[in-house]
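Researcher: We're teaching a course module on how sequence relates to structure. For the next exercise, students receive a sequence and then see the predicted structure as tokens, so they can try to spot secondary structure elements on their own. Here is the exercise chain.
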Amino acid sequence: MRVLEEPFVTREAILSVYRPGELTTERPFRTLRKQRAASSGLPVIIRTSLGQVTGRVHVYNALNADAARAYRLGRVNAAHELAARAGEIEKSPPARVVQRAIAAVAGRMPVEPLSNEAPAGLRRYLSLRRRSSWRGLDTSGLTREWIASSGAWLTTDWDELVEAVVTLNRHAEEARAEILADASTATTFFGVVQRMDHVAAELEAPDGQTLLVPRDDLDRQGLAAIGQAVSLLREVLPGGGSYCLPMPAVALDALAPRPALPVWETESRDDGSIPASALSTADAEWLGKELAREPTATPAAPLPVT
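Model: And here is the predicted structure for the students to work with:
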């Protein structure tokens, strides 16, 4: 299993790094562009399956998030260099490969993103984001976010796209090592959602390391799904404290076969029991923790007595 960062992000993702925790408008991004702290990006037209143009999504190389952070921290020269390298990467052949894949998905969108004709991944994404949206359900904006993620476009031309993603990731890492050296204030944990309940989710990295994150944090980003690749960005803030931002990531290899469905998806026997052979060690431990918790449900109405 290999989990890498998304090669391209949207303007909204860049702003979430530039202004962490804030609801932003287009103005801060225009500031980044004016100050040469963001690249030009790649435009993609969104069309319905009948050819009707419904919008446009601009995608930007992932280095733009690093440039936005550098600019916020006052490292203007580093921001300029990172944005310039992002612009160079956006003009490369691997970037065009991914751009064509995104355009292919964007060229067959339904008129109504929540309809049954919409891709299942998009409907699931919108459903998760709807639960905790601060601005209401902006289906157009969220659809753009989904189209830019690998979960939407990494479906066909697998070998060519995987090679492109790996190459783009290598170029971005080389730029970070050259420009930021050891001065970065951010670290990223890459993993896949392996276990989840209503409170927390467990991310498992390719090397087997696990990390617990609040379930709500994944819900807000549309990432609360078993098998979802996640990059958990953690940044230490100059004034103290830190913040964590879950973002979608690219899973390039299928996960190792599981002995059975996860605990929370395994159907029980007629008597309500779960076959012990259906549980992996990690799943059994997770279930044990769940069973050990005190009940927290509070009746909202009188319960019938029989």
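Model: If you want an answer key for the exercise: Residues 263-292 form one domain. The radius of gyration is 21 Å.
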